[in-house]
Specification:
The chain has 284 residues and is of the alpha/beta class. The strands form three sheets. The protein has a six-stranded parallel beta sheet with strand order 6-11-10-9-8-7. The chain has a four-stranded antiparallel beta sheet with strand order 3-5-1-12, with helices on one face. A two-stranded antiparallel sheet has the order 2-4.
C-alpha cells in the first residue's frame, strides 16, 4: 500500500452520504415503513474476489439512520478478499438496515471496484520503479472518494483538481505560442504550484526539459520512444506515461524506465464488486 491510508475529511464523507440518502429515501422509505422497527442483524458477503474500500461511507450510511447501529468489520480497508468472505456484521434497527442497504452497498461496491483495479495494476508493476497514478476521470461528485479508493488499492493520487497543480496540455501550449512560453507564464503566475507539461513528441520533450518543470507527461509514446525519452531526461525530471496504458502493457512500459503511469480506467471503467447484504446472522 502507498503509505498510510487516510480517509477524506469527515464533512466530505458526510456530504456524499447525505446526497446518496436523500436521492434514495426522498420523503421516506415506503417499504421499510411496513416493517416492525425492532432490533435485527445483518451481514455483507463478497460474491467475488476483490479489494475492499469504502468503509467510511458504508458506516456513515447506517449511522445516519441509526446512530446506535453496531458495525463490526472482519476485514481491513485495502484488504484483498476471496469470494464468500463475510466483510462486516451489523446490529441495529430493522428499518435503518434495509433503508441504508443500497446507498451503503453502492459506495462499498464502487470504491472496492476502483481499489481492486488499482491493486491489479500495482501488482503488475511489482519489482519495478514505476508507480501507478489516477486521473481526474472520476464520477461527478465522488472524486475524493474514488481517489481514496485508489490509495486503498496501493496507487498514488495525481492532482485533485484544476487548482492544486498547473498542467500544460496541447491547447494551453498552443494558446501560449510555445512550450517555453507556457512554462514561463505558469512559473510567473503560480510559482508555488507543481508544474506538469504534456508532450507528444521527442522534440517537445527536449523543449520541456530545456525550459524546466516538475514532471513531464509523455502522451501516446511508443515503447522505443519511451526508452529514448528516459535517456534524454537522464533522471532530471520525472516522466509520466499517459494514454494507451492497459494492464497487459504495464510491464513493458515499466521496462523503459519511466517513473509513473497514469490510468484513467481506475476510476472511469469501473465494474462494481459484487457484494450482498443479508439480514440474519452470518454463516459460521
Amino acid at each position: 500500500m502507498a503509505g498510510p491510508l487516510t480517509a477524506p475529511p469527515a464533512d466530505v464523507v458526510a456530504g456524499d452520504v447525505a446526497r446518496a440518502l436523500a436521492e434514495d429515501l426522498g420523503p421516506g422509505d415506503a417499504t421499510a415503513d411496513l416493517l416492525p422497527d425492532d432490533g435485527s442483524q445483518a451481514y455483507v458477503i463478497a460474491k467475488e474476489a476483490g479489494v475492499v474500500a469504502g468503509r467510511p461511507w458504508f458506516d456513515a450510511c447506517f449511522l445516519a439512520l441509526d446512530p446506535a447501529m453496531q458495525i463490526h468489520w472482519r476485514v481491513a480497508e485495502g484488504q484483498a478478499v476471496d469470494a464468500g468472505t463475510v466483510l462486516v456484521t451489523l446490529s441495529g434497527r430493522s428499518r435503518a438496515l434495509v433503508s441504508a442497504e443500497r446507498p451503503a452497498l453502492n459506495f462499498l461496491q464502487t470504491l472496492s471496484a476502483t481499489a481492486t483495479r488499482t491493486a491489479e495494476c500495482v501488482a503488475a508493476l511489482a519489482g519495478t520503479g514505476t508507480r501507478v497514478l489516477d486521473t481526474r476521470k472520476t464520477l461527478p461528485g465522488l472524486r475524493q472518494a474514488q481517489k481514496y479508493a485508489v490509495r486503498a488499492g496501493g496507487g498514488l493520487n495525481h492532482r485533485m483538481g484544476l487548482y492544486d497543480a498547473v498542467m500544460l496540455k496541447e491547447n494551453h501550449i498552443h494558446a501560449a505560442g510555445s512550450i517555453a512560453g507556457a512554462i514561463a507564464a505558469a512559473r510567473a503566475r503560480h510559482p508555488s504550484l507543481p508544474l506538469i507539461v504534456e508532450v507528444e513528441t521527442l522534440q517537445e520533450l527536449d523543449q520541456a526539459l530545456a525550459a524546466g518543470c516538475d514532471r513531464i507527461l509523455v502522451d501516446e509514446f511508443s515503447e522505443d520512444d519511451l526508452r529514448e525519452a528516459v535517456r534524454r531526461a537522464g533522471g532530471r525530471i520525472p516522466l509520466e506515461v499517459s494514454g494507451g496504458v492497459t494492464l497487459d502493457r504495464l510491464r513493458a512500459i515499466a521496462a523503459t524506465g519511466v517513473d509513473f503511469v497514469s490510468i484513467g480506467a481506475l476510476t472511469k471503467h469501473v465494474q462494481a464488486l459484487d457484494l450482498s447484504l443479508r439480514l440474519g446472522a452470518p454463516p459460521s
